[in-house]
Amino acid sequence: MSVISLPEEHKLQLDVFEGPLDLLLYLIKKEEVDIYEIPIVKIADQYMEYLNVMRMLDLNIAGEFLVMAATLMLIKSRMLLPPEVRPEMEEEEEDPRWELVRQLIEYRKFKEAAVFLQSKEFQQENVFALGSHNVELEAEPGGLHLEEVSIFDLITAFNGVLKQIPTEDLSALFLASYNVADKIEAILNALTANESVSFYSLFEHMANRQEVVCTFLAVLELIRLRQAQVIQESPFSEIKITRVAE
Amino acid sequence: MSTDTTIPELKQILGALIFATRHPLTLADMRKTLVEVAKVQGGHTTAFASVKEADIADALKLLQADLAESLSGFNIAEVADGLKLQSDDRCAPWVRHLLNIDKAKHLSRPSLETLAIIAYRQPITRAEIESIRGVNIDHIIAVLMEMELVRMVGRSNAPGRPMLLGTTKRFLEHFGLQSLDALPGIEELARIEKTRAEEKPAAAQEESVNEAPVEAAQTSEVPDDP
Q1: Are B104 and B175 in contact (CB under 8 A)?
Q2: Would residue A145 count as lying in a domain?
Q3: Which ipTM did the prediction report?
Q4: Is residue B171 predicted with pLDDT exceeding 80?
Q5: What is the dihedral of CA B201, B207, B211, B213, to 10 degrees?
Q6: Which domain, by its residues, includes A45?
Q7: Closest partner residue to A64 among B108, B134, B177, by Cβ?
Q8: Residue contact A114–B109, C-beta within 8 A
Q9: For chain A: N or C, fewer Cβ within 10 A?
């Protein structure tokens, strides 16, 4: 994919707290592949694609993403070699994916435990008592704190939009001037008129990549500022943007 | 009807005690109160001088059943190893409106995941959490500590004596959990830690949850009053 570098004023310092394992588990789920038999070429390619989008958007992502990219490339190259010519650096004739699989499975258990905690949290917010419960949790400061929809869901949707935009000739890039602030205002206006809007409707009739990028960054910024939130009825279904109740 | 001269039933007293306290009250707290009052005040209070925790538990069951049956709008919930009076969750819309409370702020997924790792594997160092999540968590830990959901429970014997983290009583209250045992699959998920602990017993034994070191005991109480 071609990489657009963003002009200075578009840099937003959006912190992403998900890590490379989150992305891998997301891809494994999205592609419905067996975690014990990860099609490493396919998953590694997709991983790189998501990583490139995040870097293009200039999100603040953990350095561990790059370490994992290197690990995936290493596994990929080992898988391509027939077992008898693989370098004997590991103890046994182990599947080169095994260490990663073990790590993913362990982490996935904790993600399930987190889902349990979240359900208890939702249940608990309907219960009131004197004392302890009156102390509300403060909002987590900074960064993109998403509850139900992950940053990767958003990137999937964004990437889908981006792929439909024809690569325009360079002159269009110079002519068009879009900025995130205008897009934030446009989205807020749309949300004043409607309780919620679909993610894709925000990008309707857009033919310019820069405009698409600015619009997406505006969505992220609104989430960060808690002016908007994103919901998804079921995993991998359409994403909607809604107002945050005052 | 005059109740002045009637000796209250055990469940009445327990209901009053739970009503009057803000923090979850344990069976031991209640038994201690009953025994001490019997000793100090004598008279009809001596009826409960040798009450057992099992008696209290039975009386509480009756009280909980009474409350449920009377549709009183509140119930006695088992939270954080104790009991507390709380409103019926079905009445939330009205309570929320009256108290002018917005929908509560929720924890983000990365925070919940970090919290889950700490809850299941405590005591645990930051580095161990990072090796499970595969990403740096400094920021998240700072936020969770500020929210008093996580606290330092000791120090590991590993080089640099890194902080060992554990969950707080407020964690149990926030999620309405009676104890850590109420976490599903706690045995399975914690077992790996046990085998790891056996490999390096020095690091693990000092911080067993029940016998927290002194520095931990001092910080274990989460203030209830603002």
Answers
A1: no
A2: no
A3: 0.80
A4: yes
A5: 130
A6: 9-123
A7: B134
A8: yes
A9: C
